Amino acid sequence: MCLDYGDQAALRELREYSRCALDAFSIDLFNFASSSESRQSSQSSTCTANGPGMSTTSQKHRDFVAEPMGDKPVTALSGIGDVLGKKLTEQGFDKAFVVLGQFLLLRKDCELFSEWLKDTSGANSRQAASCSQCLAEWCDAFL
């Protein structure tokens, strides 16, 4: 196949255009991937019981997040004591995995779950946030 000078110049121009377009696409793809990673990391840390920048958790919280849930009672969850545990049990949420199911049904939305927990058991904001954070961290570790 023989190309005359005009065709060769057009081919060089097309190659240059393609190279520039590919570079621009690569940069866009890199920027999208970087912003996607930062969104994912910020989503996994949206459940904070103590406000932004504070990460103090109870021993109960650390123990729960450190191992598989198994058949633990609802009172094993951080923020859920005997009184709230009894109220949740009366409503059918007797095991931690049942509460986890509700957390997952609410699409791991910590604010929505906290509101649900407050409405269902009478938990205060601190207790609800602590439980939300506990479940979110458990999901990050085991799901």
UniProtKB/TrEMBL annotation:
A Gene Ontology biological process in which this protein takes part is:
chromosome organization
Q: Where in the cell is it found?
A: Nucleus
GO MF annotations in UniProt? DNA binding
Q: Highest taxon of the source?
A: Eukaryota
Disordered: annotated span: 40-61
**InterPro entries reported for this sequence:** BAF, BAF_prot, BAF_sf
Name residues in a coiled coil: none
- Keyword set includes DNA-binding: no
Q: Give any Gene Ontology cellular component.
A: nucleus
Where does this protein chiefly localize? nucleus
Keyword tags: Nucleus
- Compositional bias (Polar residues) at which positions? 46-58
**Pfam families xrefs:** SAM_BAF
Record-given protein name: Barrier-to-autointegration factor-like protein
What is the originating organism of this protein?
Hemibagrus wyckioides
